[in-house]
Amino acid sequence: MRGMRSHSGAGGERRLMRLIVEADGGSRGNPGVAAYGALVRDGASGQVLAERAAYLGDAVTNNVAEYHGLIAGLEAAAEVDPAAGLDVRMDSKLVVSQMSGEWKIKNRALAELAARAWVVIAGREVRFIWVPRANNQAADALANQAMDSAGVISRGPGGVVGGGAAGAVGSRVGAGVGGSASGSEYLHDSVRLAQAQGSGAQRHIGVSAPVTGLILVRHGMSLDTARDVFAGQALPGSPLSDAGAGQAMAAARELRRMVDLPWFGLTPPKALLVSPTARSVRTAELIGDEFGLACEVDAGFVEQNFGLWDGLTKPEVEAKWPGGPETWSADPSYRPEGGESRQELGQRVHQAVDQVVRRYRGETVLIVSHAMAIRAAIGAALGAPPAAWFTFRIAPASISLLRFWDLGHTEVVCTNHTVA
Q: For residue 334, with 0-12 CB atoms within 10 Å meaning exposed, 13-18 middle and 19 or more buried, which class applies?
């Protein structure tokens, strides 16, 4: 069963604690007002060791809320014992079947949430177990409490979130982050706290810790994009097409919307970094106009070097280097003649990301780059090896958002978000 993960302690001798995670989520309207709830029990005694619940806002589906409940329960279990084996019990047949590998995940939003869940439980033994709704009432009750009060609950390891007595729902959660506890600001702060709780950072460093946001935008369509060729580092390279310029302007408007919404956790961008290719620079200029930012070229985010393949279609490459395209797709160490491998690309992009996070600590940075380079950055955030990068689809002018905390914890907020 794909849902099983193994873990061994030092010398393989330690008897590990086993925890039970009960999780649920609900939406009144589907989509509608939503929240999640989760708790962690001692596997031997059944004692409740931690509880988590949070309001997620409006226009949220049941399945999204259920996945948020799963993530919150897994993170709470990691606070109790990061090495313990887990029995995850949910009444969502969809979540249990998808996380067990029995059902494919076709919805992009759910796939991103599932990836976040697997990042939390990487290396641990986990069993996903479906239970009837009547056997999941405790998690359901927590979700309903959070929905009724538009609040946040956090009891157990990690302390109380949002202030108030014992994490009581309905307390002035906005006050915990310096906001108002009334009107729309109250709801916004509740969402902001819920987002932080689901991020993986709260169990280590708290909601108020500095977080650096990287907004990665692929350039809009160029003439080479339309021809579907290997378009790498050649300078200046194919220019942005008229359609690509329209995509870039649409992405700029969407980025403005994302920055203004509280649940993306973004501050206004401080800098705009760009790969030196013509298609990237023009895309960045159009986005920079929206935010009043000038472009700063950073060669660390240029596309993979395809060497002699640059400008050729796959059939053209196949004709000159039989088996080359297939080997390149399958083997991260394969280097096109005169170019660089995916492993080398990853080392370059990971170093560039580290430099940006250090340089702009606590700020938001816009980066206009390329499909393979953005895949490498997402792979770094997820800890995914180069062999897995082709599971990330990166469309022209798409937006991907990563967040980095000081202690090395990361969050992939979204990938391949497109509006044009």
A: middle
Q: Let me know if 219 is a catalytic residue.
A: yes
Rounded Cα distance, 161 and 36, in Å:
15
> From CA 213, how far away is CA 209, in angstroms rounded?
13
Distance separating alpha carbons of residues 159 and 280, to the nearest angstrom: 45
What is the C-alpha to C-alpha distance for residues 20 and 384, in angstroms, rounded to an integer?
27
Q: Is 303 a catalytic residue?
A: yes
Strand partners of residue 27: 34
Of 22, 51, 68, 219, which residue is the catalytic one?
Answer: 219
Q: Which residues of the chain have pLDDT under 50?
A: 1-15, 159-208
Instruction: Calculate the CA 144 to chain-centre distance.
Output: 26
Residue partners of 134: CB distance under 8 A and separation at least 6: none
What is the pLDDT, as a whole number, of residue 175? 23
DSSP letter at 260 equals H
Residue 105: how many other CB atoms lie within 10 Å = 18
Which strands make up the sheet holding 399-405, listed edge to edge?
Answer: 295-297, 271-274, 364-369, 211-218, 399-405, 410-417
Those residues with Cβ within 8 angstroms of residue 9's Cβ, 6 or more apart along the chain or in another chain: 16, 83
Residue from 125, 303, 340, 411 carrying the catalytic annotation: 303
pLDDT of residue 407: 54
Say if strands 295-297 and 271-274 run parallel, antiparallel, or are unpaired: parallel
Q: Of 291, 221, 302, whose CA–CA distance to 256 is shortest?
A: 291
Count the Cβ atoms, other than its own, within 10 Å of residue 21.
28
* The pLDDT value given to residue 345: 94
Instruction: Tell me what pLDDT residue 140 has.
Output: 96
Residues 6+ positions from 317 with CB-CB distance below 8 Å:
230, 309, 324, 325, 336
Q: How far apart are CA 383 and CA 16, in angstroms?
A: 25
Q: Report how far residue 241's alpha carbon sits from residue 177's, in angstroms, rounded to the nearest whole number.
A: 44
Residues in the chain, overall count: 420
- Structural domains in the chain plus CATH codes: 10-205 (3.30.420.10), 211-417 (3.40.50.1240)
Cis peptide bond N-terminal to 31, omega within 30: yes
91 touches 139 (CB < 8 A): no
Among 309, 300, 418, 307, residue whose Cα is nearest residue 370: 300
The whole model's pTM is what?
0.54
Assigned token pair, 218: 């692929």
